[in-house]
Prior knowledge:
Blueprint: E1 8-13, H1 18-29, E2 33-38, H2 41-55, E3 59-63, H3 71-81, E4 85-91, H4 106-134, E5 137-142, H5 157-175, E6 180-185, E7 189-190, H6 199-208, E8 211-212, H7 214-226, E9 231-232, H8 236-245, H9 250-263
Parallel strand pairs: 1-2, 1-4, 2-3, 4-5, 5-6, 6-9, 7-8
Helix pairs in contact: 1-7, 4-5
Amino acid sequence: xxxxxxxxxxxxxxxxxxxxxxxxxxxxxxxxxxxxxxxxxxxxxxxxxxxxxxxxxxxxxxxxxxxxxxxxxxxxxxxxxxxxxxxxxxxxxxxxxxxxxxxxxxxxxxxxxxxxxxxxxxxxxxxxxxxxxxxxxxxxxxxxxxxxxxxxxxxxxxxxxxxxxxxxxxxxxxxxxxxxxxxxxxxxxxxxxxxxxxxxxxxxxxxxxxxxxxxxxxxxxxxxxxxxxxxxxxxxxxxxxxxxxxxxxxxxxxxxxxxxxxxxxxxx
Length: 268
């Protein structure tokens, strides 16, 4: 390992599975030491062993619930204690709520809002300050194509992803002249545990280009980040469909919502 990379780390939230784990592998392959934040202790233990063996880089883990009020401070303290230079920040952690707004427990709503808006915002601020001091840094925020889709049943999830997109755009302009690359990726359906689809449907979705692998999404996200591009919507079908989905009339959405609720269909 070169002296330059000795204490240079990529910090990935939600890095123990799905897109986050794919990001971890691809960043480690590029030579970055890895620091993963996740609330899945078992997976963190396994990955902490796997990454150094496979890529000859260091891998540190932080077992933490990112909805805690002091989560960002705990991460910062950990990085300072271990003298980590965070050159890459990937804000990926999140979860999906797909149910009627009035039925969402308030504690679950608060957790989503913290995890997908407050925590990444404060992490960006905290890590970007140190990146600016060093004159270099990369930030990748993971949004979603639902950022453009104010639809029922994702009335909390979609708007938080809209925030991530617009926040990324805003700080990109502020940090551009300071050699800090801020990018945002907006994936559509991704073949992770979140979808909860049958193997046959997952295979069909991937063959049709409707569902993408975590590796594909990670590759596209890191690509635009290192090239200092503002954002990307991975996949041709996703790009085309967004132009249509944004303009679906309200009465169509209301009828669809009524049909789903009355028939007890699951969104995912």
